[in-house]
Amino acid sequence: MSDTTSVAVLGTGIMGAAMARNLAKAGLDVRVWNRTREKAEPLAEDGARVAATPAEAVEGADVVLTILYDGPAALETMRQAAPALRPGTVWAQATTAGIDALGPFAEFAAEHGLVLVDSPVLGTKQPAEAGQLLVLAAGPQEARAALAPVFEAVGSRTVWVGEDAAGGAASRLKLVINSWVLTVTHGAAEALALAEGLGVDPRGFLDAVAGGGLDMGYLRVKADAILRGDFTPSFAVRTAEKDARLVVAAGEAAGVRLDVAAAGAERFRRAAAQGHGEEDMAATWFASFGDGRAAKRA
């Protein structure tokens, strides 16, 4: 390890770009790669080096951080990086990839002598930009010193839940948390949609629950986005649908029926089919309407 930790960030979408900026701001040596290079190029102004290929990004890196769309995308990107990976490099896998992806990740890490850490993060665009993500991590003790400056730069807290990355403790916890986040998002959207359908002032609903046990900050955030019609993505509908389906699949594998999560995935699918796939997941609101009313609000 050099005095300055070098980090390759593979994936510079909403989350990856914010994480890369905070890593550079913390004084780490940051290299970035994204499938669409244009999304990575602005990070050069923040001190990151933009690589043309995953292999170029990871060459000589102490830590490789993957934050991509799903498990297959993360694994394929690491395969492209393989010729330049050094044995002993720490692979911090932050993609919400689901439980089934961990076996192939572990096999790849073993094949290339990497130290795998399962490290999904909790948060959306604003906490990512503020360096206030919650990092859920599982991996060996030997990786923690290398990862300390990385996780400190991107998060407000790291919760280590075990030493076996392939065991999936961190990813399982992330899916449980996501099931709650997505449920609350749909609940807020449906309540406001019902208010509109019944001719009820939605602010009357929000005033009625204010300060009580039914009130919560996340309700306020998503309700505000819906009422203002501002669906600038902090977490996109199509990604939320992917995560919802991972939750449902994990439940099925464990013998747990998740009717609400399954219905929520279908709402996200409908919203995406209406053209809202790249908007914030609060756009699940649109899935409540099929008579043109939603189109007038869009």
Give the averaged pLDDT, no decimals: 95
The CATH superfamily of the largest domain appears as NAD(P)-binding Rossmann-like Domain
How much of the sequence lies in strands comes to 5-15%
Q: Any idea how many domains?
A: 2
Tell me how many strands there are: 9
Helix content, binned percent: 40-55%
- The span between the termini is 51 Å
Q: Ranges with pLDDT <50 over ≥5 residues?
A: none
What is the N-to-C succession of helices and strands? EHEHEHEHEHEEHEHEHHHHHH
Class from helix and strand fractions: alpha/beta
Shape-level CATH architecture of the largest domain = 3-Layer(aba) Sandwich
Identify the CATH class of the largest domain: Alpha Beta
Predict the CATH topology of the largest domain. Rossmann fold
Kindly describe this structure.
By secondary structure, the chain is α/β, with parallel strands linked by helices. The protein has 2 domains: 6-167, Rossmann fold, CATH 3.40.50.720; 172-297, N-(1-d-carboxylethyl)-l-norvaline Dehydrogenase, domain 2. Helices cover 50% and strands 13% of the residues. It has helices at residues 14-25, 37-40, 54-58, 71-81, 102-112, 125-129, 144-154, 169-198, 202-209, 217-228, 237-253, 259-276, 293-297; strands at residues 6-10, 29-33, 49-50, 63-66, 90-93, 115-118, 121-122, 133-138, 155-162. Strands 3-2-1-4-5-6 form a 6-stranded parallel beta sheet, sandwiched between helices. The protein has a 3-stranded mixed beta sheet with strand order 7-8-9. It is globular, with a radius of gyration of 20 Å.
